[in-house]
């Protein structure tokens, strides 16, 4: 009988993971011996945080290649074919959402391996919940273009779409470019558009605010430099 690919959420920052995961999720994670991860070092730190009972060096922890071939994905899933359960872990939050782990999940479906998502923190849903923006219609766009002109064009197009469909637009940025993204949002969006900044969710640095762009322009800019942030807006 084939094993299961469990999708194991990871703490969003330096927090006690045991307080962020339901008991059933922790119980499942602590019984796993095979893992596919984005980064082995941070995965070991997370497994230590959740008090995995086995010595970490005894666990099988394989890193997911940045651009894995189908053969590499199949090899990573080989333990499940022989009856072993596998845990998939992202760097932070829920695996396979804004994360290359989605490729492994797709391959598991191709191979007939059961996929089981586990409950845990998701910065995207937590940010949407706390924003006060439209939770009935929303879209996540990952990373926007880096170049100033292309980013501004993308923001204006997303604002048009938001206005037309009353849709909340969500996206993230590489933390060291957060300040540039915040400046671009104020420069590109209409004054009445509602903008939410959700920083370091579930950590001691958590800070969330939703204001109109016009109000943001009159306020002191938040410190977002190198601090994981979700941006949301609704026109």
Number of helices: 9
**Uncertain runs:** none
Task: State Rg.
Answer: 19 Å
Q: Outline, from the CA principal axes?
A: elongated
CATH architecture label name of the largest domain: 3-Layer(aba) Sandwich
Instruction: Look at the helices and sheets and give the structural class.
Output: alpha/beta
How would you sum up the major sheet? 5 strands, parallel
Report how far the terminal alpha carbons are from each other: 51 Å
Order of helices and strands: EHEHEHHEHEHEHEHEEHE
Helix share, percent: 25-40%
Order of strands across the widest beta sheet?
A: 3-2-4-1-5
- Within the CATH hierarchy, at the fold level, what is the topology of the largest domain? Cobalt-precorrin-4 Transmethylase, domain 1
What is the beta-strand fraction?
15-25%
> CATH homologous superfamily name of the largest domain?
Tetrapyrrole methylase, N-terminal domain
For the record, the count of structural domains works out to 2
**Count the strands?**
10
Mean pLDDT score: 95
Top CATH class of the largest domain? Alpha Beta
Summarize the helices and strands and which ones pair or pack.
Elements (H helix, E strand, L loop, with lengths): L3 E5 L14 H9 L2 E4 L2 H10 L10 E4 L6 H7 L1 H4 L4 E4 L11 H10 L3 E4 L5 H9 L6 E6 L4 H18 L2 E5 L5 H11 L5 E6 L7 E6 H6 L10 E6 L1
Parallel strand pairs: 1-4, 1-5, 2-3, 2-4, 6-7
Antiparallel strand pairs: 7-10, 8-9, 8-10
Helix pairs in contact: 3-5, 7-8
